[in-house]
Design a protein that fits this description.
The complex is a heterodimer.
Chain A (H helix, E strand, L loop, with lengths): L4 H9 L4 E10 L9 E5 L4 E3 L7 H14 L3 E6 L15 E8 L2
Antiparallel strand pairs in A: 1-2, 1-5, 2-3, 4-5
Chain B lengths: L2 H12 L3 E8 L7 E4 L5 E3 L4 H17 L3 E5 L4 E8 L4 E5 L3 H13 L2 E6 L15 E4 L2 H5 L8 E4 L4 H12 L5 E4 L3 H13 L4 H4 L2 E2 L11 H17 L7
Parallel strand pairs in B: 6-7, 6-9, 7-8, 9-10, 10-11
Antiparallel strand pairs in B: 1-2, 1-5, 2-3, 4-5
Classes of the chains: A alpha+beta, B alpha/beta.
């Protein structure tokens, strides 16, 4: 979070809205620690990461949807759970990511 | 600026600990967020006051450890993600010795705040420790008293009982996460004898990692520093698992 404050400040100063995606749980091998964050602005800006690059595309889309609807959601990704977003993790692990509008 | 974010941001910028507790799974829509401070104050709402009481208690414990994880409240059918925002933990090096120079340098890379403590002014100098966050020229017990929290790590490295023992007495009476002491098994056996004489129990003394450092066959001060830091990290990460 600490390393994302400047980016968030910049976006908020421009009047953009911000969505935050946070890794809340990992199972098996996972490239990022619980608490890792990716942020997305309503203007399409993006910073941080929640995986080794496997799910960032899906998270970007989810962030835009959360900004549009205002409703937070919990997402699961993993090799055994491809149906959710049709993306899997190359590392073979599973992660749960919470996506919310910054309040 | 958004109200809760403004508070979180201010705390992080000021280096003050704060936890957030977010309702991530519940019967209704998720996303409610509670901010929890070390003293047990909280800001925000989760709907159920009983849940708030339990979450505040759990979040305070996790915050003291600097831990971040999901807490399940199965009887209420909810899951809460507790995230701790804490300043870097501090590694206290007792003894401005050669190992401390290397240990301080490596510890900065891994993300520690570093403090060097020595009563001897020839050892604890800014010229020898240009990268240390803090140099304390004082007896170790005075320097450490009241400064060790549950995330603090203490490496006792002077090789001199006059300095080592007081440091260990304060560390053992504190909730410090890691306590390590330099010295051979024989030196350590004598040290344990002295500390037992000072009234410490076997359980308390078992907290001391000695001989200090993971056994990697370290020879040089730099290698010994590496073995100590590896041990500190292994203790920090112990019990912290990605599995629920």
């Amino acid at each position: 979070m600490e390393d994302l404050l400047d980016e968030i400040d910049t976006w908020l100063a421009r009047g953009e809205r911000v969505a935050v995606a946070t890794v809340v749980k990992t199972m098996g091998s996972s490239p990022r620690l619980v608490g890792s964050k990716m942020i997305v602005s309503s203007a399409g800006g993006m910073a941080g990461s929640v995986s080794g690059g496997c799910v960032e595309g899906a998270i970007f889309t989810a962030c835009q949807e959360v900004l549009a609807s205002g409703e937070s959601r919990l997402l699961h990704f993993g090799v055994a759970d491809e149906a959710a977003w049709e993306v899997g993790l190359a590392c073979g692990g599973e992660i749960a990511i919470f996506v919310e509008p910054l309040r | 600026m958004s109200a809760q974010y403004a508070i979180i941001r201010a705390a992080i910028r000021a280096g003050l600990p704060i936890a957030t507790a977010t309702l991530i799974r519940t019967g209704g829509p998720p996303g409610a967020k509670l901010l929890v401070f070390p003293d047990g104050r909280s800001e925000g709402a989760l709907g159920d006051p009983d849940l708030v009481r339990r979450v505040v208690a759990d979040a305070r414990d996790l915050l003291a450890q600097g831990a971040t994880r999901v807490v399940e409240y199965a009887d209420l059918g909810v899951a809460v993600f507790v995230e701790s925002f804490v300043p870097p933990p501090t590694l206290f090096m007792v003894g401005g010795v050669h190992i401390s120079i290397a240990l301080g340098t490596l510890a900065k890379v891994v993300g520690f705040r570093t403090v060097v403590v020595d009563a001897r002014s020839t050892f604890a100098t800014a010229a020898r420790f240009p990268h240390a966050d803090e140099l304390v020229l004082a007896w170790p017990d005075e320097a450490l008293q009241g400064r060790l929290d549950a995330r603090s790590c203490v490496a006792v490295l002077t090789h001199d009982p006059k300095l080592d023992d007081p440091a260990l007495r304060v560390a053992l009476a504190s909730p410090a996460r890691y306590i390590g002491a330099l010295g051979s098994p024989r030196t350590h056996a004598k040290r344990l004898e002295r500390l037992r004489g000072a009234g410490f129990s076997a359980t308390q003394l078992a907290r001391i990692h000695a001989p200090i450092g993971l056994p990697i066959g370290a020879k040089t001060p730099q290698e010994i520093a590496l073995s100590i830091l590896a041990e500190v990290v292994s203790v920090q990460r112990k019990g912290e698992s990605s599995e629920p």
